[in-house]
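# step 3/5: fold
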Amino acid sequence: MNDRAALDADSAFGASAFEGSLESTAPMRWMGWRLRLLVLAALLGCLGLFTLMRWVTDSPSLDALFETRAEQGPPVLVASALPELKSAIGKPLVAFEGADGRRQPVSALLLQRSARWQVDDDAREQQVRQQEALAEALARGALTLEFGDGQRIAVRPQPRGFGGVGATFWPLAGLALLLYLVGVVVVLARPQTRNALYFIIALAQAGNLLFIAIDSLRGLGMPAGASASEMFPRLAFDLVSAAACVHVFALHPRRVPGADAISGAAWAVTALTLGLVHAELLPRLWWWSQGTILALSVASLAVLSWSYRIEANPFAAVMRRFGTIAVSTFALVSLAVALLAT
């Protein structure tokens, strides 16, 4: 047994986690503390998702569809189920006013939900300011919309409700919960460093899915705080996932020389970047963060290729192919977003 463990520690050609699960003692694994922790984790995940759903469905919004017809022009009302807005269909929205009387001019940025993929720092700040001002005005229970021809229409926002979240929210939220639970199962089945890293990646991507689900909400208006709180967590999710990939490929399928130093460097770069972002000391935030994520992703592929040269493991070959596709896609998407923003 000791010889087998030593072989498995150096090479992934040894017994895998799946093979180990076929042993006669495997069914007993889930009869003790693992099962209790899994049930607790599932309950916490469901409770967290229910809390998120309650927050989203209780948030006020306007049942109205707007679109932009010019690059920097104001949003144009396309359709609405509200009778008072029927006369304004086809007109551009230039401002809104809350119950406190404060007037907020609007632009096409009002319809852009995700601050994470806003390249320009000033545009991101304006986007968040407009979204949060609208959320605050909606929360006060009364809103006056001002259109391009001078028409002013008073509307009364209503809670979004379960029917107002849209069809995209539910599968994304369900997928986030499933991904979280898969990560819990993996780390409980065999508690070890590489499985803990997988759980970190799964948790980060589940968080990203929840933010995407919130961005997909129907109607005009986001829950209060959703736009202002998005940028840092989503950057943290992506940076932590990239650093965890470097770390796990330094250990698996074969531990490469200097694995601790490589992993430490990846986490140090991540911590430094997040510290600068949190302190708001990083100008051109999107460019720096996106470049750091891409650099860590390329580093993970380099470590995986090094591992494959040391030992031609089929798992490393497959992961290198998938990793190359994923990193290339990420780079192309980043380039497309950057070109559209210029």
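# step 4/5: annotate
Strands lie at 60-61, 64-68, 75-80, 93-98, 103-105, 143-147, 152-155, 158-159.
# step 5/5: archive (pending)
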